[in-house]
Amino acid sequence: MSMLNYHHFPIYSIMVLFFGAFLIAAIGGRDIAKNRKTTGVRAFIPLLATAASLAFLIALIKPVMLGGEVIAYWMGSRGISNGYAIGIALEVDALSLFFALLIATALFVSAVYSIKYMEHDDNIGQYYILYCMLGGGVLGLVLSGDIFNMFIMVEILTFAAVALTAFRTKVYGALEAAFKYLVVGCMGSTLILTGVIMLYAQYHTLNLAQLAALIPGTMNNATKLAFALLYIGFSTKAFIVPFHPLAADAHGAAPASISVLISGVLTKSGIYGIIRLTYFLFQTMELGAMQFMLVFVGSVSMFVCVTMALAQHDFKRLLAFHSISQIGYVLAAVGLSTALGISAGLYHAMNHTLFKGLLFLAAGAVLHETGTTDLGKLGGLSKKMPHTTVLFLIGAFSISGVPPFNGFASKWMIYQATYQKAVETGNIGFLLVTIIALITSVLTLASFVKVSQSVFFGQLPAEYENVKEVPFGMRLAMGILAVLCVITGLVPQLVTRYLTEPAARAVFRVGDYISSMGFASQTPAPAVSFAQVGVWEPISWLLILCIALLAVTIVAVAGKYDRVSVRSSETVDTKYQLFYGGEDNFHSQVGGGDLFWGFKHNWRHYFSFMHDLHSGIVNDYALWAVVALALSIVFVMIVL
Amino acid sequence: MTSILLNALQYLGYILIFPGFLFCFVCGMLLCGIDRKLVARMQKRVGPPILQPFYDFFKLCGKETIIPDAASRTTFLAAPLVGLAALVVIQLFVPIHGFSAFYGMADVIVILYLLLIPALASILGAAASGSPYAGIGLSREMVTIISCELPLVLILLAIAKTVGNALGTGLCFSLSAIADYQLVHGSLITKARMIPAAIAMLLVIPGETGNHPFDAAEAETEICEGMLAEYSGGPLAVFKLSHAVKMLTLTSLFVALFLGGVGTGITAVDGVVVFILCVIVTAVSISFVHAVTARLKIEQIFKYYWTVVSGLALVSLVLAWYGL
Amino acid sequence: MFKKLIEESTAKSPWLFHINSGSCNGCDIELVAILTPRYDVERLGFKLAGSPRQADIVVVTGPITKQSLPRVLRSISQVPEPRCIVTMGSCPQSGNVFKGSYSVAGPLSKYVHVDVDIAGCAPKPEAIIDGLALATQILKEKRGQM
Amino acid sequence: MDFPFVREAVVKLFSKPSTQLYPAVPSEAAPGYRGKIVFHPETCINCGMCERVCAGGAISTTVEKTEEGDKITRTFDLGSCTFCNTCADFCSRHSIELTRDYHMIGVEEGDLLVSGTFIKAPPKRPAPKPAPTPKPVEEKKADTPAPAPEN
User: Fold this and answer.
1) What's the mean per-residue pLDDT of chain B?
2) Is the dihedral angle over the CA atoms A264, A268, A269, A270 positive or is it negative?
């Protein structure tokens, strides 16, 4: 095989990142002198590495997504011996590639952003080493065909993420957040390792495809226990309830470029692990109880985290909770086990990477310019940072599901999928999921209204009078994501046809996954239908809206709408002051954590309960993990 | 070539004249005027002339537009226009007795979301004005939106289930299909199980439009018109027009969802029939409720919608679900 | 055509903004009285606006105390053109019984041009309607000159 | 939750409104209403009592010496008046009257002024009198114009 055969591309895309990390270390990881030259090179290497990685993965779209091929790749020459896979394998089906593409995109954009964002930090070399390690780890996780390598990659990415969370040690709470993450993350990793060991003890193989061929039908209590351990292990990586407080702390403390990775990349790797686990390895998703488990956890995640987000008064913590809320959507949709549901879930996962990345970058831009993300202290930045404001609003509209942005397209598919499932099964519980999803969506909108009012609109505090727009590099990174948000929202049919439907189809083609690795498979691929009941044509809608807007604007301008009076001189003119009931103007910003008190007042008992529950003590969170593990073991033992 | 041009002209006509911009303007304003007149009569007053909203609109057009120093100018000016355009587009999707200008382009869930855009536009416009009164107003408006969302979702799901059951598809989100179903089977309001949902919808309409007693967001006596505190002249006129169009949109949505199947089949006549039905719906749901109640506090609004109104809608949904 | 329409509309839809500058509440109550079913000025298009940005006619009551003077002037300046300023009751016109008090800065006409004075202490609602009707005519003229 | 006005609203919708159509239908003030001041200069004796009792300082007097006697102009500023009726009560000659006319709208300066002029001839002096009685002296004091309120 030549070097440029596309079968090599998955390993290239992983190795290029690890090699980048090595190269940065070779140049010198520590800034002894503030050498601008090496700093530039160090920023350039991860950029190049992530770009190359993304390019390799994009090249794989044609054979894997469109051609439906499953790439099985053996490292070295060892493959199957005596019917057992003894080599290290990469296996890339459409699902792996879908997640890998998301991850590589987020890595690339974040690398572009990091150049300017991190330039004033110390030890950039170490930052970029960890950055590349994290990227390589996540890509390795989703492309691996081997469950032990998945564990190795989980370890790499967890430790890289922990170190990056604590990277800004001067930030209040960074070390604490990293410690919490370390404790619970290690619990998760240990659970995964234990699960892997138990599977290996049972089946004498670590290859995913072979395990998938062997496990269904031969499940005993040890296998079930392994399932529960692996499930909880990947849950900690996806930060779904009850592991959400970690995410909030980690996001709040980490640099924004790393928050993008934690929310857009790490949580996706957890979701990927859960999908691999439930649909491939154990093939348990036929069971109503397993569907219930995922949908239930997903619904609880989306609702609890959105209400938690409403109560936040820090920009990045708020985004962190939304991140889990959106992951809840993904999990609930994936747990439906219908083709439309999985397609919708994956679509939402993609959109989540895009818009949440955009929002975190916008938060980072605000932090970069003002030095704070406290919603109570900011305000009125739209006059100083107009581009960031527009980009933020695109992200906010996307996540809140405002048509025609991408969040709407995927959420709308999720509503249909849940409602369809409810109608098909006659189970009113799924209907409840639809309702929760719709309410969560409007609560999401509410909290982004809060952010836009508290940070970008309203009144500018005097100390931010000299704030400037962020550098072009940062705006470019945000712009890429914003354009992707708009495009994926405008052409949902294309996105589903070329990206999410192949990936969703791959979920049902377990047989292909097994046989392409060279193992015998009994599972025939079921016929899947992606039919939707609803109709939504964003481009036509946008066209009509544009015509209507144009008509309205023309009429308005003809009616002297634009003849407005604005203060011309620098002197204070009371006419152009705000109306304060006649008082002289003073700084009075309505915003911050308590904006929606009319809502919160009715829910005060719930909020005070949640407040007490989220104690911030790592022991409590470790206890939650243990309780979650115990519950899931009991549940799995009963239903499987 | 000419046929494409004619088609384009036809659609342009839909957008600009009927059932688009001009129709929205005239009928919305008339509806608003009738509402004010009815409220006045219920309060034993003479009330303003029916054409009063037109006078208000043209007067505001002739006034000076002041942009405060603290405002973000572009957002401040663009928000009302976007909100109005979005509303007009929603009106295009609401079928008028089997006639819909753009068939099969949006369904009820989409409409639910499209209704967020005008509200969001006014919220962003208010936020951009920088006034603390507007800040309080937008907070209340957002809570009102959250309040209305739950009952509206339940109502729409109940309708989707009922129509879907009858059509045998299990569920039906398409507005046109709902309208067509009612053409054949009669109005949905005649079904006993949909009556609670219809009542709930009647109670949701004033909340969505921000009419009394759910107008905490624009309380002129407490928070100086709230979201509109800094708006003057043209932009204010557009906001007032948006409010009128929103009344038309929601009432005609009610007509399309619950009172479908009343009409002749001639579009022009149906337009009038639908408008008359809209007036009746307005009289019941907006004017009457306005006349007999006092303004609610924002937490009361939330509580009311999530208990009483949602309860009504839930009754319908459960009845529809079990096919009773 | 539109100019004419706007002028006509201006006369038919005047919105009031009420400023109390230390009034004894007599006039304020009478102003509210004209909105009651008995007088119902809404039939003439009058409406109480909540913010000066939306008002056409500013109705000032009270003797313009020193505390209220800057606030009154600021609020009046925030009313978009064309606007009309109406003083209601004797106080803002002369100070009435508070004339000469250390805390009274009035009359209002010392600071801004007052278009219409409505006399009475407090004026009868009919008199208020008369005065406001006159103010709408002035408003229309001002709109015509714009 | 109760709605006490439901019945009211429905009934009123179909009954006649209770509004007075004021500008179209003229309306008269109630008996005893104290409105616009009417001053009868012909009966005034310029005793000055009204000016002294006026709380709002609405009454001013100017005196002009002419050959026929003092030309006295008494001005009532309705824009400063509290319509308390005290001046009329104290007027021994009933020269001041508060009518039921309430149309008091001022657009230009002077619209709200009510004034009357009369000539007060000096009393026919009986040829030589030893000394002037104290009364005219007091009257003369009262005649001196009080500082007129600025309008």
Assistant:
1) 82
2) positive
A564 vs D63, more confident: D63
Q: What value does the mean pLDDT take over residues A95-102?
A: 88
To the nearest whole number, what is the mean pLDDT of chain A? 82
Contact between chains at A582 and C74 (C-beta distance less than 8 A): yes
Is position D77 within any domain? yes
Q: Give which of A450, A278, A483, A459 is closest to A380, Cα–Cα.
A: A459
What does chain A come to in residues? Answer: 640
Looking at CA atoms only, how far is residue C25 from chain B in angstroms? 17
Q: Which DSSP string corresponds to A269-281?
A: HHHHHHHIIIIII
- A439/B321 touch (CB, cutoff 8 Å), yes or no: no
Give me the pLDDT at residue A2, please. Answer: 64
Amino acid identity of A375?
L
Lowest-confidence pick of A11-15, A582-586, B122-126, C25-29: A582-586
Question: Is the Cβ of A577 closer than 8 Å to some Cβ of chain C?
Answer: yes
Sign of CA dihedral C80, C82, C85, C86: negative
Which tokens sit at A446? 């509410």
ipTM for this prediction = 0.82
Residue of A178, A45, A18 lying closest to A114 (CA atoms): A45
Q: Which pair of tokens denotes residue B111?
A: 């409409």
Spans of chain D, pLDDT less than 50 = 137-146, 148, 150-151
pTM: 0.86
Tokens found for residue A59: 């090249």
SS3 A382: helix
Mark A395-429 as b/e (b = at least 16 C-beta within 10 Å): bbbbbbbbbbbbbbbbbbbbbbbbbbbbbeeeeee
Q: What structural domains and CATH numbers belong to chain C?
A: 12-145 (3.40.50.12280)
Q: Is A221 strand, coil or helix? A: helix
Domains of chain D: total: 1
Neighbours of A133 (CB within 10 A): 23
DSSP states of C64-103: -BTTTHHHHHHHHHTSPSS-EEEEESSHHHH-GGGTT-TT
Q: Is residue D125 part of a domain?
A: no
Which A residues, 398 through 417, put their C-beta within 8 Å of a C-beta on chain B?
Answer: 401-403, 408, 412, 415-416
CATH code where residue D42 lies = 3.30.70.3270
Alpha-carbon span B97 to B180, nearest angstrom:
8
Number of domains in chain B: 1
What phi, psi does A30 have (nearest 5°)? -110, 135
Contacts B45 to D, Cβ<8 Å: 17-19
pLDDT at position D142 is 46
| Tally of CB atoms within 10 A around C36 | 15
Query: What residue ranges do the domains of chain A occupy?
Result: 6-519+536-546+593-639
Is B45–D3 a contact, with Cβ atoms under 8 angstroms apart?
Answer: no
Burial (Cβ within 10 Å: 0-12, 13-18, ≥19) of residue A601 = middle
Question: Is the pLDDT at A591 greater than 60, yes or no?
Answer: yes
Instruction: Identify the residue with better confidence: B91 or B263.
Output: B91
Residues 578-597 of A with CB under 8 A from C: 579, 581-584
Query: Which ranges in D76-133 belong to alpha helices (H)?
Result: 86-90
pLDDT score for D138: 46
Average pLDDT over residues A221-239: 87
- pLDDT for position D151: 46
Instruction: Print the domain residue range for B123.
Output: 2-321
- pLDDT at res. D118: 79
Least-confidence region, from A24-33, A156-165, A317-326: A24-33
Determine the 3-state secondary structure of A516 from DSSP: coil
Strand blocks (E) in A366-487: none
- pLDDT, one tens digit per residue, over B280-315 is 888 888 888 888 888 888 888 888 888 888 898 888
